[in-house]
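[retry 2/3] Homoserine O-succinyltransferase: previous attempt timed out, resubmitting with same input.
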Amino acid sequence: MNHDPHSVGIVSPQCAEFDEPLPLQSGASLPSYRLMYETYGTLNADRSNAVLICHALSGNHHVAGRHHADDKYPGWWDTMIGPGKPIDTSRFFVVGINNLGGCHGSTGPMSLNPATGKPWGAAFPVVVVNDWVHAQACLADRLGIEKWAAVIGGSLGGMQALRWTVTFPQRVRHCLTIASAPKLTAQNIAFNDVARTAILADPDFHGGDYYQHGVAPKRGLKLARMLGHITYLSDEGLGGKFGRQLKSDGYQFGYGSEFEIESYLRYQGDRFADVFDANTYLLMTKALDYFDPARHFGGSLPAALAATAAKFLVVAFTTDWRFSPERSKETVQALLDAKKSVSYAEIESVHGHDAFLMTDPSYMQLMDAYLRRVADEVGA
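[retry 2/3] Homoserine O-succinyltransferase: success.
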């Protein structure tokens, strides 16, 4: 592999073990837990240049770089993070964490339940965004980070970033919430429920304890991913890439995969089902459904944000119909009503919800300019 001066290069995951119990919002408690994380860049002397990256539904701690020279894919936000990139690791100390309930090393349904010595499976408690924020704060304490220069996330990650400013207002200088929303609409909850139903109905699900049967509900997880994937893309983007292209010269008059878009979706579903855990998918979508910071403030988002102390950047994309710009504007209006400092940008893009992972020039320039100011502000 040729050395890319803008890449963080070869990176290694790290594991933080916590022996103290973690109370959860559901009323349950994890007796102990571990978090997988990665860091890039160097923490400066006054520990003011730390940036937390919160992952979306299927993400994890591997945000940038590669684990091995022959890795086919880099971390999931490698386009954004590295020396000279918008989240510049020559100035920032960047932390990526795999959330509780995940399937990439952090404690989750696949982990052993210390009470039984068997995988948690269906017994793993439901976790919500605020639980993740509390766990992330424990890791921040472990790393000696009292205050983040910025907490950044797209989609479900943006919800975590917003929640950080409510739960720990004095620990966040800047909050960047991208392609996100202050809570899900009924339509979004409906999409999640269809996805979960596909998993729950898989004969290999076994009530969530499929690990003990040596199987996995891949058919249900595949369907869930196919459904989700459609909502992450725009009709314009799909039309431009696939149109009505057929895999052969004519109609086959059957129910196989005939159109290129069908083949693409099935491939994406199979690939995802091979590497992701169905119980984690259930947990992550439920955390999305439950997210509503205004719930404990009489339904008032401005009241929920009243005590926040961060400066905010809210970014939306024109073709994102899963979390449309109108949902981002709800966050912006609530911040204005709460008399907070907020900037808003609506980016032209054909990439739909997934645009926050893409390299649209105006988006990259916006992130670069904003984060340069953050770096200057903290003396990074």
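[retry 2/3] Homoserine O-succinyltransferase: The chain has two domains: 14-183+292-378, 188-285.
[retry 2/3] clearing retry counter.
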